[in-house]
Specification:
The protein has about 260 residues and is α/β, with parallel strands linked by helices. It has eight helices and seven strands, in the order βαβαβαβαβαβαααβ. The protein has a seven-stranded parallel β-sheet, sandwiched between helices. β1, α1 and β2 form a beta-alpha-beta unit. The longest helix has 29 residues. The chain is globular and about 55 Å long. The structure holds nicotinamide-adenine-dinucleotide.
């Protein structure tokens, strides 16, 4: 299916690895021109070279921390008029809520709520003027079903979700949609390091913990960044113009609810 996004400018955040990279690859496969960013230059350049070689797409890079005002300023200077915006950043650390002081909360809110909101604020009016815009926020299945040890993520991402639910209804008549993609257990570096930490805590082999976690998912396995990227690319397509304000789980059936 031709997604109709050839030549569209896409700003994809936190995209040197994992889910952000999966989204960047899928958008490039459909002909979008990318600016990808991440904190570490080396991995970022390697990913850009890989995407260029695989797709022939134009891929610009920016090494920055998107959760800082300087990082966002540099990203918007390098890609001031994106047609497609994929917001993403590292998730907050796990822990016990008793250990989280105001600074810990502000850091989580900055990264996983206020950064995407600020990027949307600075780009959405241009999309409205050009009568095309697709915004996809990478959030978490924790928005639908809270994960006990990830309270910072549960809270910060729910704030973003509530804000987006309102705004997405105001932009859609201009062909600008805003949706959230909610990963469940996806086989990325982040997941692998969390599985390794759990294995260490329980004094079990990593493979045993991995197999146990995968078996608890109806799909019987973790998801891939490519699968996640394909869902993102569809939400960014011309065909998806009637889909806005939605929260899509990519979780292999792990969320047990009917709705
Ligand atoms: P990952 O660790 O595999 O990749 C993270 C990418 O983000 C890297 O490219 C890294 O350089 C970049 N990055 C991190 N912080 C950044 C920052 N401040 N500025 C710029 N770039 C930054 O992680 P992932 O598994 O792809 O996760 C992506 C998001 O999805 C995270 O917020 C994570 O919490 C969330 N999530 C992941 C899963 C999962 O199973 N993998 C599940 C639920 C939610």
């Amino acid at each position: 299916m031709d997604l109709g996004i050839a030549g569209k400018r896409a700003l994809v955040c936190a995209a040197s690895k994992g889910l952000g990279k999966g989204c960047a690859v899928a958008l490039a496969q459909d002909g979008a021109e990318l600016l990808i960013l991440a904190r570490g230059k080396e991995a970022l350049e390697a990913t850009a070279a890989e995407i260029r070689a695989a797709t022939g797409a134009k891929v610009a890079t920016l090494a920055c921390d998107i959760t800082t005002p300087e990082g966002r300023g540099a990203a918007l200077a390098a890609c001031p008029e994106p047609d497609i915006l994929v917001t993403n950043a590292g998730g907050p650390p796990p822990g016990d809520f008793r250990a989280w002081d105001r600074d810990a909360w502000i850091k989580a809110l900055d990264a996983n709520m206020l950064t995407p909101i600020e990027l949307i604020r600075q780009t959405v009016d241009g999309m409205i003027e050009r009568r095309f815009g697709r915004i996809v926020n990478i959030t978490s299945s924790a928005v639908k079903a809270p994960i006990d040890v990830l309270g910072l993520s549960n809270g910060a991402r729910s704030g973003l979700t509530g804000f987006v639910a309102g705004l997405a209804r105001r932009t859609v008549k201009h062909n600008v949609t805003i949706n959230n993609l909610l990963p469940g257990a996806m086989d990325t570096e982040r997941l692998r390091s969390m599985v390794a930490a759990a294995a260490k805590n329980r004094n079990l082999p990593v493979d045993a913990v991995r197999a146990e976690r995968a078996a608890a998912i109806p799909a019987g396995r973790f998801g891939t960044a490519d699968e996640f990227g394909a869902a993102c690319a569809f939400l960014c397509s011309q065909q998806a113009s009637y889909i806005t304000g939605q929260n899509f789980l990519v979780d292999g059936g792990a969320y047990p609810g009917t709705f």
